[in-house]
């Protein structure tokens, strides 16, 4: 909200959530019924009938701007403001669709109340000319002076400061305003529409085309990367008075007292409010500056709806943990077509760019899903994708590459060792994060624990974890004899006395891997602590037991541009495997941690704490809350 919210700041349907769309339902049903039942001799009401499809198209169009903009700011060298975008901004801008809904409702109401709006033709060229002239004249002129008035301290504190809370803008920042302020903007934009209606020159195409034009210019001006090609201004120099650029409007959000114009800088030139650095900033951002990543985290998609939770997907979904069960049936069905399209991509893509101190950190996504990793047929193709990502990371100058989720599966690349074997002089250090993951697990085990039950398959993490537990003289029980035999072969002989095969499920602390079944969970006594050592959380079915987080850490306060949750983890919490690569780069360790190579549990943990990472446990967080 604004610094001191004024009257009518709240949107009328703010408490309805997504149920606000029910307000459109009766109007849409009415217009559709009238359109379908109109006899051949009567003229159909095209304008009213078009409101619903235009609303849906504008929602899709806006989401495309969000996704493209976030993709560009994660990879583009044309970024304008190199500052952090945070969860507070995502929460503040989650109602970006309110103005689209308001437009639809106003169109319905005016159509029903004004007879002249009920027989509007599909096209009228006179209306196009009228709309263009009225926008260039009254709309742009009045908006300029209204905008300057909104920067007066009284109106700014009560209304416009809400919009300016976003220094780093995204396309949807353009429509984030208190309700009263948005209504005034709508009154301005209604000048061409109502004039066309009053003069009989209105048409469905021009009326809705004007809305699309406003959306396009609004979204373009609030992108945080420069995309307007210079050739446009070279071919037609006067265009600089008629069309702004993202860098032009960005200066308004960083300097506050310049570049007030709506879409046409003409009035800033006329009234002396043009920022003197506008042309220079445009040239610099258009030329751009390459930023090489220092750390690359390679992850992949999990369930079909996880693509919607990416930073490039729905901003509000990405800012919340992917909850278990991971998706509702409705969301899964809706995401299925997009999931199929994503899985056709032939290379990884950048999803996120962060900074910590002087490190540039990027997250790359392998466009494949967990089910494809578990299929033997898909492993070979996935292996090629990961190998290409390793080569791309090295070519970009990355010092460290971490393998997240199943990208380090033993059957896929032996915890990353395969790439070091194939390229012994690999400069980019491959980090599987086993040491820090084990350290995070050890932190979650309740103090005073004397014995634990180990469930899961043999892996590098189980070996390192079992070794660390035995060194603490903790009894490690297992019901799987094969796992016991495997650990006996891997651990030093003096530690074998702490390994025990048992058919009992009496331990109060269970260390669980990926394949924990519901049947096994039912054997646990009440109050058992389930502590995952895998990257995937167990399916929590016991209300009388305690479920801990997958190994993770809270990121340092100075970690920038983090506004999306990592899978099922909460805000500003990062998986230990991902954090391990960052710590590796900060410490400038000149060795891989993959295959059989281990950094050292205590060494990795102390280094993480020294750089500002903090322990995280869902159980501890819930108790504290």
From TrEMBL:
<dbReference type="Pfam" id="PF04116">
    <property type="entry name" value="FA_hydroxylase"/>
</dbReference>
<dbReference type="GO" id="GO:0005789">
    <property type="term" value="C:endoplasmic reticulum membrane"/>
</dbReference>
<dbReference type="GO" id="GO:0071771">
    <property type="term" value="F:aldehyde oxygenase (deformylating) activity"/>
</dbReference>
<feature type="transmembrane region" description="Helical">
    <location>
        <begin position="100"/>
        <end position="121"/>
    </location>
</feature>
<keyword id="KW-0256">Endoplasmic reticulum</keyword>
<feature type="transmembrane region" description="Helical">
    <location>
        <begin position="46"/>
        <end position="68"/>
    </location>
</feature>
<dbReference type="GO" id="GO:0006950">
    <property type="term" value="P:response to stress"/>
</dbReference>
<feature type="transmembrane region" description="Helical">
    <location>
        <begin position="183"/>
        <end position="213"/>
    </location>
</feature>
<dbReference type="InterPro" id="IPR021940">
    <property type="entry name" value="CER1-like_C"/>
</dbReference>
<dbReference type="GO" id="GO:0016491">
    <property type="term" value="F:oxidoreductase activity"/>
</dbReference>
<protein>
    <recommendedName>
        <fullName>aldehyde oxygenase (deformylating)</fullName>
        <ecNumber>4.1.99.5</ecNumber>
    </recommendedName>
</protein>
<dbReference type="GO" id="GO:0005506">
    <property type="term" value="F:iron ion binding"/>
</dbReference>
<dbReference type="GO" id="GO:0008610">
    <property type="term" value="P:lipid biosynthetic process"/>
</dbReference>
<comment type="similarity">
    <text>Belongs to the sterol desaturase family.</text>
</comment>
<dbReference type="InterPro" id="IPR006694">
    <property type="entry name" value="Fatty_acid_hydroxylase"/>
</dbReference>
<feature type="domain" description="Very-long-chain aldehyde decarbonylase CER1-like C-terminal">
    <location>
        <begin position="452"/>
        <end position="615"/>
    </location>
</feature>
<dbReference type="Pfam" id="PF12076">
    <property type="entry name" value="CER1-like_C"/>
</dbReference>
<keyword id="KW-0456">Lyase</keyword>
<keyword id="KW-1133">Transmembrane helix</keyword>
<dbReference type="InterPro" id="IPR050307">
    <property type="entry name" value="Sterol_Desaturase_Related"/>
</dbReference>
<keyword id="KW-0472">Membrane</keyword>
<feature type="domain" description="Fatty acid hydroxylase">
    <location>
        <begin position="134"/>
        <end position="273"/>
    </location>
</feature>
<feature type="transmembrane region" description="Helical">
    <location>
        <begin position="127"/>
        <end position="146"/>
    </location>
</feature>
<keyword id="KW-0521">NADP</keyword>
<keyword id="KW-0812">Transmembrane</keyword>
